[in-house]
Amino acid sequence: MTETKEIRYQGHLHEMQKQLMGDYYAQLTAIANGKSDAKNAHLLIAGNPVELVRAFDMVPVFPEVNVLQLAVRKQSLPLIQKAEELGYAVDNCAYVKADVGLYLSGYQAPYGTIPKADLLLCNYVGCNVYLNWFEHLAELTGAPAVNIDIPFVRSADGEPSPGDVDYVVKQLEELIVKLENITGTSLDMRKLRRTVENSALVGELWAEIKELTKQRPAPYDAYFDSVTMMAVLYCLRGTDEAVSFFQAARAELSERAAKGEGPLAEERFRVVIEGPPPWPFLRVFRDMFSRWGAVAVASTYSTVGGIWEFGFRHDPQRPLESIARHMLQYNLCNRTFLQRYDQMARYVDEWSADAVVIHSVKSCRLFSAGQGDMREYFVRERQVPTLLIESDLEDPRYFSQAQLRNRIDAFFEALAQRRLTAASDAELAAGAAR
Amino acid sequence: MTLATVAPIEAVERYRDVVEDRTFPTVREWRARTGRMATGCFPVYAPIELAYAAGMLPVGLFGAGNQIEMAHADSRFQSFICSIVKSTLELAFVDRLAPFDALMFESICDPARNLASVMARNFADRPVTYVHLPQNMTSPAAVDYLAREYRRVADELGAVSGNAVSVEDLRSATRAYNGLRARLRELYLLRALSPEKISTAELYTLSRLATLTDPADGEPLIALSIATARARESRPKDRVRVVLVGSFCEQPPLELIAAIEESGCYILDDDFLLGWRLFKRDVALDGDPFRALALAYLDGSVHLSTKHDLRQPRSAALIASARAHRADAVIFLGAKFCEPGLFDYALYRRALEHEGIPHLFLEFEEKMWMYDKIRTEVETFVESMLFT
C-alpha cells in the first residue's frame, strides 16, 4: 500500500478550544475550592436543557466530558478499577465507573477539580445508563437529583406528539422552580431567550461547518477533528464564547475548503463513522485510518448532543418548546436505531461516502447493541462496504491494537482492490464500446 | 423426599415442561379455542391489560431459555449483549414467534430498545409496539403523559386485532388481571410465611404459567394450587432464609432455581417475572381506566431495577424486604451482561454491607445447563451462614 502522509493540523481553533476549555475547568475548580459562589448542575451531553442552567448563571458540569478526558490522558483505568472494587461489574459502562472512581478520588482530575453537584439533573434521552449513573451519584454523594423524562421517539415519522412536547415543557417548568430554589433567583426570561438565541446561532454555524465536508477533499475530519469542536459545543453552548468560537471555526475551515486543503495530503477514501471513539487510543486509532488516506466526512458521534445539520434550530421566541424539541427529537440518543440507519444513509448519499465504519463500543449499548444488524442493512440492502470493529470508549483493556489494525487494513485493501477492479472494468467497457 | 412427592400440585406437574416449551403450546391452544390473536410482551413490565382489552392474549416473552441454539441472532447482537435479547430475536428467525400477531417492547434498557427496532426491520409483517414508561416519578405531569401513552398503545393494538379498545373493555381487562395478580400475591405470601409448604420451583412454574395463559384460565389454577400447598403438612427444615434479587428480566432455568433451594435455602421473596405482579394492590376500577393503570405504575408499584424512582432508593427497598421477610441473607442472581441488574448490585452490596446482611453474588445465563458451580457456591455460602 501507499501510505498517506498526514498533515498534523493544529489551526487557530485548536488553540481557541484549549483556552476556552482551560477557562471552563478553571471555573469548575474555583467552585470546587470554594473560590466561587456559582452553583452548578451535573447533566448529560445528549439532548440537554443547558440553556436553562445557563440562564440561571449556573455552571453545567458534564461527567461524560470529564471522564473522556481522563481516558485521553490514559488515566481512566485505575479509576475504573476503583469502582469495580466497590462491586461494579466489568460489563458496566466504563464512563460511569470512571466517574464513580473520580468521585472516590476527591474529584481531583489532572485538568481541574470537579465540584460536587448542587443538582444532579438527569436528562433521560434514550440512554438508560444515564438514569443509573445519576441515581448512583445521588446515593454516593447525597446531592439532590431530578430526572427529566423524555419520551422516546415512537412515531413512524420520528415526530413527537403534541402531548409529548407538552409533557417535557411541563417538566422544564418544574425544573425552573427547582433552579430558582437553588439559586435564590427568579428566571430572567430575557436571559433565557438570549441563551437560546446563542444556541440557535451555534447550531447554525455547526450545521454550516458540517456542510463543508461534502467537498472533496473534506477540509477536516468529521470524526476525529469534530471532537475539538464538540467540546465547546457541549460545555459552552448558550454562551457568547461558544458563538465566537464557532464563528472563528467556520471562517478557518471555510478558508481551508476554499483552498482545497484537507487533513491528509491525499484523500483516498471518504467514510462515515458510527459510534464513539476509543478515547484512550485516539491518536493510534486515527492513524489506522490516516495511513490509508481515509477521511471521515460525517459521523453519528458528532450528533449525540444534537442534530443540527438537517435543519433544527433553537428558537428564542419559543424557548421552552424548542429546548423540549431538541431533547425529544433532535439528538441521536432519543431516536430509534432505524432512524440512525436513515441518518447514516443520508450521510453516505449526500456526503458522497465510499464506506461505513462502525466502531462498536462495549460500554455504550445505546450505540452498539444491534450493530451487527446495522452492518447487514448497509451491506445487503444498500450495497455499501461496511466494517464493524470493536473496542471501548473508556476502558483501555478492550483495545486490541494489532487486531484492529489488521481488520482496518484488510478492509481498505479490499476497498482499494475493488476500486482498481472497477476502474479496469470501466476501461475495458470503454474499449469495447470504441 | 421432595415436597412434590408429598402432595403434588397438579398444575405444577402438568405445566412444568410446558412453561419452558418455546413452541408456546398454551398460546396455540388458546388461539385455536378462541380464534383470537396474541401479543408477545418482552419483559420487564408491559401494560398487558391493553392487549387483553383489544381482544388479544398478552404473553410473556422470556427469550428462548436453554431450548434453542443460536444460529442467526449472534451476528446481529454482539457477544457482550445479554442472552434474552439475542434469543428472543432468534425465536423470530426460526419462526417460533408464529403464534404472535404483535410484539410489545418497553423502555427498560438500551439493548431491549434496539431489539425493538431490529425486530421491526427484519420481521416487518409483525407489528412492534414500543411503550415509553416514564422515569420522572415525581412530576405531576407524568400521570397524564402515561395515560395518554396507554391510549396510544391501545389504539395500536386495537388496529392489529380489529377491536378498538373501549373504556369498558379496559376496565374488564383490569378486573381480570387484578384477579390474577391478587392470586400471585397470595401465592408469594404463602411461600413467605410457610416456605416449607411450597418450593420456589413450584411457585415459579405457577407464576410463569400466569404469563402464558388467559387470566380466566390461570387464576383458578393458581387458586387451586395454593389450596393444595396450604393443606400440606410439611415441617420447616433448617435452611438459610434468603431474599433473591437480580432476575427480573432474563429468567434463570428452572433447574437452577431448584438447585439454589436444594443447596439449603428457603427463598422468601424474589423478583422473577416481576412485571407480571408489579402492583402492590388492585388497580382502581372506577374512573378513567387508562389513568388508573398509569397511577398504578407511578404510585402503586413495587421497586424495580428498570424503574428509577428517586423517592426511594432500590437498595433501601431491598433492605426493607430482607427485614420484613426476616431473611438471614440476600442472594443476587443476576443475568450475565444485564446492565440494570449489575448496576443495582453495586448499590445493593454497599447497602447490605452497611446493614450487616450477608449476601452472595451469582451470575447466570438463561442458556446454561450445568449448575454444579452455582450449587457449590450456594452450599459454601449456606455452610458459612449455618456455622457462624
Question: What's the quaternary structure here?
Answer: heterodimer
Q: Give the domain tally of chain A.
A: 1
Provide mean pLDDT of chain A, rounded. 96
Distance between the termini of chain B: 28 Å
Terminal Cα span of chain A? 33 Å
Largest interface (C-beta under 8 Å): A-B, 54 and 55 residues
CATH class of chain A: Alpha Beta
User: Which of globular, elongated, flat, extended, rod-shaped describes the shape of chain B?
Assistant: globular
Q: Give the CA-based shape of chain A.
A: globular
Task: Describe this protein with a few key phrases.
heterodimer, A: 434 residues, alpha/beta, Rossmann fold, four-stranded parallel beta sheet, 11% strand, B: 388 residues, 8 strands
Q: What does this 3D model show about the protein?
A:
The complex is a heterodimer of chains A (about 425) and B (about 400). With about 425 residues, chain A is α/β, with parallel strands linked by helices. Chain A has one domain: Rossmann fold (3-Layer(aba) Sandwich), CATH 3.40.50.11890. Chain A contains 16 helices and ten strands. Chain A has helices at about 10-30, 50-55, 65-70, 75-85, 95-105, 130-140, 160-185, 190-210, 225-235, 240-260, 280-290, 320-330, 335-350, 365-370, 370-380, 400-434, and strands at about 40-45, 60, 110, 110-115, 120-125, 145-150, 270-275, 295-300, 355-360, 385-390. The model of chain A has no long low-confidence stretch (mean pLDDT about 95). With about 400 residues, chain B is α/β, with parallel strands linked by helices. Chain B contains 15 helices and eight strands. A four-stranded parallel sheet of chain B has the order 2-1-3-4, sandwiched between helices. A four-stranded parallel sheet of chain B has the order 6-5-7-8, with helices on both faces. In chain B, helix 7 (about 140-160) packs across helix 12, helix 9 (about 200-210) runs antiparallel to helix 10 and helix 9 packs antiparallel against helix 11 (about 255-260). The longest helix of chain B has 27 residues, at about 165-195. Chain B is globular and about 60 Å long. The model of chain B has no long low-confidence stretch (mean pLDDT about 95). Classes of the chains: A alpha/beta (about 425), B alpha/beta (about 400). At the A-B interface, helix 6, strand 6, helix 7, helix 13 and helix 14 of A face helix 6, helix 7 and helix 14 of B.
